[in-house]
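Two quick folds needed for the group meeting slides. Do the first one here.
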Amino acid sequence: NAFEQVGEAVERGKWRKPAPGLMVAGPTGSGKSTVAKEIRKIFANPLPKDSHHLPILLVTTPSDPTIRALGHEVLSKLIPFVKPHTRFTKHEYENQIIPLIKERAVQAVVFDEIQHFVEHRASNDVLKATDWTKVLIENIEVPVFLFGLTKALKFLEGNSQLDTRFSARVAMNWFGYRSEPEQLTFRSMLGSFEEK
């Protein structure tokens, strides 16, 4: 199930470099947000209020994902109060983001709404941002989780390195309750919530 695969990806990330990734895709209302919350719980170690550490970096992909928009989104999560009009080249973003992920002791990165890359893939700016994001993911040495609608699976197409890194994929679907196997799956999921 999705929770087990999240746990496995986290464990593998502790000893395997580059850390493996996990793609979680499915329609709205299929439980992706619940899985994302589970990832946050895994890394929700209590930290002192003055701690500089950021256990989990949660990035929402902008609806129009250019390098500047996405770079700013990532950087603003790592450095509070970064000015929105700051302009950096893609290499300047990389040179700031990658060391900050290490400095802030980030243990996992979540990119949410990754389908925005697919929705705008005809745009030249979005194609450049897609390539830049792939380079960034390849250089992050912690587990990376990609979340999005079902069409987000196309984000990995055409890049063999990313395709290999994100070979673990969870296809979420709405729960049915008509057949006996569907009822067993649903009860099993409820049982995993009760255990927590």
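Then this one, please, same format:
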Amino acid sequence: ATADAINAGFMSPAEVRAAVARSLSDPLQLPSLSNFESFFVLRALASANESALAMGLVRRHWSYVTELNATTTWERFDPQHLDAGAMSVDSPPVNVMNDRTSMSHPWGSGATSFLSKAGLGVVPTLPGYKTWDALPLLLGEPGSMLLRSVRGKVPTPTGAIALDVDLDRGLFNVTVPATTVGRIGLPKLRRGLASV
């Protein structure tokens, strides 16, 4: 409910900060959510400028599934099963969680959309991407939950906007259609970029 209220814009910035601190900042309180429900928490955390918390949820909820060699998105995954040692790469996940868990659940793939949108941060500011912003939200310092690099393309009616950012190499490359105008946000870090 907290994430829904944040996503709907029903809270002031002060109320959002308080709600995140009260309900969304403890990763051990969130695992009971399905992967589908967790997507809405990711959106709320991103809109509250809590990128590190959002990436912590991605790593705890979805990364563990890939470490278990999953090739599909699951309906539900509770990381506490891994934490308690009740699940390993060789254990059948359905038997550990429950016998009604779908192991091929497309609407459990919210992390993919979130990582693409918030990771690249490319959004239109006028219809058809005539103007746009590229503001990668998930980049951060070494040792944090945040990413060190992002790369991807966003299709637009006049061609793709391609972003390739690698903080360890000090690189930020953007390729854009000639007929568009964009605003690019560079991450605020303790290290300079070698080239733009």
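Slide caption for protein two: The mean pLDDT is 81.
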